Structures are given as structure tokens and as C-alpha cells.
Amino acid sequence: MWAAWGILIFHLSAFEHSLTNMRRSSIARQGRTTLSLLFLVPYATFVAIKSCNAEQLVICVVVGVIYGAAIQSNLAMKTFSMIAKMFPKPSSTPIRSQILDLCVSISSYDNNVQQIIDRKKRLFFMLNKEQQNNCVQTYRRLLENHELQKKNSEFLELIKDSAVEQFDIGKLELMGKDQNTSVRAANEIIEHLVRDWSQDEKARKELFEPILKHCKNKKRVLVPGCGLGKLAYEVAALEGVENVDAIEFNAPMYFVANNRQLLQVLDKSTLYPNLFKFSNWRNGADQLEGVTLDLSAALTPKPDAGQVEVVYQDFLKMKTENYYDCLASLFFIDTAQNIFEYIDQIRRQLKKGGVWVNYGPLQYGTAAYAELSADELFEYIESSGWKIVERWTGTNRYNGSEKSMLHTAYGIIGFACIKE
Ligand SMILES: C[S@@+](CC[C@H](N)C(=O)[O-])C[C@H]1O[C@@H](n2cnc3c(N)ncnc32)[C@H](O)[C@@H]1O
Predict the structure, then answer these.
(1) pLDDT of 93-130, one tens digit each?
(2) 187 Cβ closer than 6 Å to some ligand 1 atom
(3) Which class is domain 200-273+297-419?
(4) How far apart are CA 177 and CA 23, in angstroms?
(5) How many angstroms does the Cα of residue 385 sit away from the middle of ligand 1?
(6) Which of 221, 319, 335 has most ligand 1 atoms within 8 Å of CB, for mutation?
(7) What InterPro entries does its record include (predicted)?
(8) What is the Cα Rg of the chain in Å?
């Protein structure tokens, strides 16, 4: 009987082990293994003591250990994993897992900030006392930076709370993901909110105006790769525009852009987008400068404005054909792996006589099949049934403060062409 108990217990523990392996969550895995040990080991001991004499007990432990070692072999683990896979896993769609990553990035924000600031402080204290006294302000700025990071963190928590509620993300699920995630996803949202929705319109006007003039009086407009959606709302506010479909396949971007309730909460908040940029400030205060959001264009559009629909979709997979009167692409076409596929899809989406207006750089991704120069791009467009009606150029920083001494700006090309 005792041998049976020993075997059963090792079976259970190995099965539990494979089940948790399948879920691939390091913290949860550790938690469950600990649980197994906490419950199964005392239970096995209790059963063994109750049902065996001392001699049997020794044999029981030896058999159990040998059996346990055998059962932890790869083959046994694979068998148990296969069985475990038949059990339902928590459902996860691509959008949900991207949102989960964002939530984890937000959860680890404070920790990451703490590490960065602590390191900066340690470096500061490498200066001798006299040198430290010569730049007390610099040290104070670090402390202030840390305080303002807390405000960014509170802001991000609002986004996380909304995501957790909407996607029914459990605390354990969040804890189960690797908490050493970088702040990148969280910071990207801050930078894009500032790019699209800061109260100060100046930089955006330069970008939007040449595009908007081609979208006027176009009933249906498509904005692929819409980011956080400001261009789509500006297009919708134009005379004669009835519908704007804004397409985005980055789940966090889509989630924020499409979430009115959340936008309402975020409206008029102040963000600090330069806190991770420690160098190149003419004036230290500029690094700590706050930017206030104005989301009124999305929340209270003019009564005669067109409808904006933000859609979570891969632009290349859109099935509509000959549907839109205008397509506005901003900082988008170079996201293509195959630029020809993008241009063909743009063409399919537009009606005959429809307008494609584009403005942005040619900063292709690392795996682009062909990195066409502007000349080559124009040559292809002209040879494939488009009539180019306007070309222009500009420069744009994309994001980052104009007060920084470091100016990285794209030279960008604009063109408008008609589908013949
Ligand atoms: C460089 S960002 C520009 C965002 C926005 N147009 C702007 O100017 O702020 C490019 C955007 O296109 C999105 N994107 C890239 N390829 C896409 C695709 N195939 N379908 C939908 N969105 C896409 C990315 O997720 C990203 O948000």
C-alpha cells in the first residue's frame, strides 16, 4: 500500500510540474512547485508513517526517490506535458497578450525608474565632495525627476487599470509574467500621447496641414497605421468628410485610441516625456517640463464632424476594395516589409479617382525586402497607374523636445497622387 502511495504522489507531483511547465510562467511555476512540495511531501510522509514500520519506511523513501528521479526524465515529462496540453489554458488572443505585455511594462515602471535613478545617484557620489557641491542643482534635478516619474507612473496606472478590467487580466497572471520587462512599451505610449495629443499644436500643424488639404470633401477616408489617432480626428473634422477608418495593429495604441472612457480619464493630464533623457539640456528645467494633453477633438468632436472608427487590424489584411475616396498615410509606408504590397493594397482600397496622400520618411525596418529610395518610389508609383499631383518635402523630429540640444529629425517626403 505504501509503495502505491509513494508512486501516486510522485505521479501527481510530476503531472503538476508538467502542467505548470506548459503555462510557462516563471513565478507561477515556482509558486506551484512550492505548493506541491508544501502539500505533497508532508502528505506522503504522513501516509507512509501511518502505514509502514521503520524498515518499510526506508524502502518507501528509496523506491520513491528512484521512481521520482525516473519520472522526472524527459520522456516522462513530455508524456505528461502532452496530457496537460489537453486541459484548457487561459484564453489568449494576440491583442490580449500585447496588452498583457503593456501592463507588465507598466507594473515594472516604478522598479525600473528606481534602478535608473539609483544608478545615477551612485555615479554622482563618485564625485568628490567639492565637485558634488559644484553641481548640487544636478543632484536636485535627479530627485525631482524621481518625483515626476511617480506622476508618469500614476498616469500609466490609469491605462493599466482600464486594460486589466477590459481584458480581465488577473493579478496572478500579471505576476506570472517576467517582471524584469523594460519600460519601453509604457514609455512609447507616453511619447505617442504627447506626439498626437499635446495641447501645443505647432509641430503637428506642419505635418498635418499638407495632408489635410487633400482630404477635404472626401466622403470616406482611410488612415492606415493611425497610431493614437489624432490625424484621423483632424480629417474627420474637415468639410465634406463623412467617415474615417483608422487602422492600427499595435494593440496598446489601438486600445488607447479606441477607448473613449479611458481618453476621458486621461484628458487634461500632464505628462513628463523627457525624464529618461538625461543629456543635452541647455536648461535643466527643460528636461522636467510637463506636457498637458488635450483630447477634446476625440471626446467632443464638432456636431458636423465625420465619424471616426478606430479598427484593430493589419492593413494588409483589409478585404475592402474600391471603397475609399482618400487614403492618408503619415509616417507609415516605410513600416512595410514589402513596399510593393503596401502600394498595391493602397490602390485596391481606393476608388478610381481616389487620392492617396502620404507624408513621412523612408526609414525601412531591418527586414524590408527592398529599401526603395524616394526617386525609385516615385518612379514605381508613376509607372503603376497613379498620377502624382503634388510633391513637397519637410523635416520632422517624430518625437522629443525641441528644447533638447540633440536634434534628430527626419527629412520627410510628401506627395499626393490620384488612382487613374
Ligand atoms: C511610425 S508609426 C506612425 C503612427 C502615426 N501615423 C503617426 O504618425 O504618429 C507607424 C504605425 O503604423 C502601425 N502599423 C504598421 N504596420 C501596420 C499594418 N500592417 N497594419 C496596421 N498598422 C500598422 C504601427 O503599429 C505604428 O503604430
Answers:
(1) 989 999 999 999 999 999 999 999 999 999 999 999 99
(2) no
(3) alpha beta
(4) 11
(5) 25
(6) 335
(7) CARME (IPR012901), SAM-dependent_MTases_sf (IPR029063)
(8) 29
Least-confidence region, from 6-15, 89-98, 171-180, 291-300: 6-15
pLDDT of residue 309: 98
Does position 26 have pLDDT exceeding 50, yes or no?
Answer: no
- The mean predicted confidence, pLDDT, of the chain is 87
Asked if residue 195 has its Cβ within 6 Å of ligand 1, the reply is yes
Domain limits, the chain? 2-85, 200-273+297-419
CA 227 to ligand 1 centroid distance, Å: 6
